[in-house]
Inverse folding.
């Protein structure tokens, strides 16, 4: 299967849902077993500097669902929202002690494209669900290749519903009858 972060992929502008679901594009951040606790403790997510423009283009404060994927444990954490606009080096010391080995000792954070986050109010606590080794290829495809970044509204909505117990895992195939039943349940809950 190879390593998680293969060659960099061309980032795409995520699309808004056209199915009437109200789903909006989201953003996935990456962490490892070494950086996860720092991300969650400080409510700060970061990526390499080259991701900053896409963060600015996609992340809307208080609107865009954000997720943290722990590639060491194959777990998705969420659902979060941006508490502030993304910026460079909000905390220049972030992840220096536990970041990638090849950046230890360098000036500044190894992940300078940063955003302060908060837990989404409809999420009572941080949820973490297992993707599992058997589903990694499907998950990576849905997440745009596995380097973190924007995700389309449809995928984001499925991921958010999965994490909040309101739907199946995003990679699970649903029959039209199951999809219709879930849509009716969501509509009834919203009414």
């Amino acid at each position: 299967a190879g390593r998680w972060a293969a060659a960099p992929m061309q980032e795409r502008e995520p699309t808004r849902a056209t199915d009437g679901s109200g789903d909006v594009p989201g953003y996935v951040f990456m962490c490892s077993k070494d950086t996860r606790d720092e991300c969650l403790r400080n409510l700060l997510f970061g990526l390499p500097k080259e991701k900053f423009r896409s963060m600015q283009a996609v992340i809307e404060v208080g609107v865009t669902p954000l997720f943290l994927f722990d590639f060491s444990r194959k777990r998705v954490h969420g659902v979060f929202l941006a508490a502030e606009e993304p910026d460079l080096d909000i905390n220049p010391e972030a992840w220096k002690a536990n970041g990638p080995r090849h950046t230890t000792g360098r000036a500044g954070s190894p992940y300078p494209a940063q955003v302060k986050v908060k837990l989404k109010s409809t999420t009572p606590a941080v949820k973490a669900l297992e993707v599992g080794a058997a589903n990694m290829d499907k998950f990576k495809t849905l997440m745009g290749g596995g380097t973190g970044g924007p995700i389309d509204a449809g995928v984001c909505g499925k991921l958010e519903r999965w994490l909040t117990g309101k739907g199946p895992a995003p990679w699970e195939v649903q029959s039209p009858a199951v999809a219709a039943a879930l849509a009716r349940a969501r509509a009834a809950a919203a009414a």
Remarks:
- The radius of gyration is 16 Å.
